[in-house]
Amino acid sequence: xxxxxxxxxxxxxxxxxxxxxxxxxxxxxxxxxxxxxxxxxxxxxxxxxxxxxxxxxxxxxxxxxxxxxxxxxxxxxxxxxxxxxxxxxxxxxxxxxxxxxxxxxxxxxxxxxxxxxxxxxxxxxxxxxxxxxxxxxxxxxxxxxxxxxxxxxxxxxxxxxxxxxxxxxxxxxxxxxxxxxxxxxxxxxxxxxxxxxxxxxxxxxxxxxxxxxxxxxxxxxxxxxxxxxxxxxxxxxxxxxxxxxxxxxxxxxxxxxxxxxxxxxxxxxxxxxx
Length: 274
Fold this sequence. Notes:
Layout: H1 3-37, E1 43-49, E2 56-61, E3 64-76, E4 82-83, E5 86-87, E6 90-94, H2 99-102, E7 113-118, E8 127-134, E9 149-150, E10 154-165, E11 169-176, E12 182-189, E13 193-201, E14 220-228, E15 237-249, H3 263-271
Antiparallel strand pairs: 1-15, 2-3, 3-8, 4-5, 6-7, 7-15, 8-14, 9-14, 10-13, 10-15, 11-12, 11-14
């Protein structure tokens, strides 16, 4: 081999070796940074409502217990049926439940499900809202007071058992973030027969953190909405709900002075100055 050709081959090999080393170095740094930025996670499943007819709810996480008292109310779009037999939609608790979840109830639990009976005078993009309200409000002719349910931790997904009768409807869940914006999360189609567990992941676009302390900024559940598709019949239909729950990340990083980032503790500290 001529000396010039040998030098050219050696230069080419040297460039390839340098590129390979540089690539390995970049991959190593990427892995280190990814590992360093990985935040610990503590997943927990929390039942928000079993739809057994009770109004008091309680759940615990991160060493604290939270108590809320609310019930459910209905609203509907303009073509909801109103006649001499009564107004639609209607709601009640029924003695029924998903057998896949509770079997034949061998423990004789007080099992019920929330039933919605709907009817509209014409087809179209009709909707029925099922939303939490302050217990006892909306009686004696007054309007119910909406209650937005604080979600525990940073929720990753929402799931619920829903009974469908094969109508081409869709179910959405609505959440409010710490900035006041309301986000719709698609739970899926109700075009199936019987009980089915519907699950929806909470998109990353919905913020559950702040840049500044306190970093945690949980979501608030606003309502469910059933949408009817324009070509589907709407004169008479039923939907049932059971076992609403969330998969949530409850991990919080501790630091020196983390108690001063706890809103409840801060309010208590500053209340002493009055």
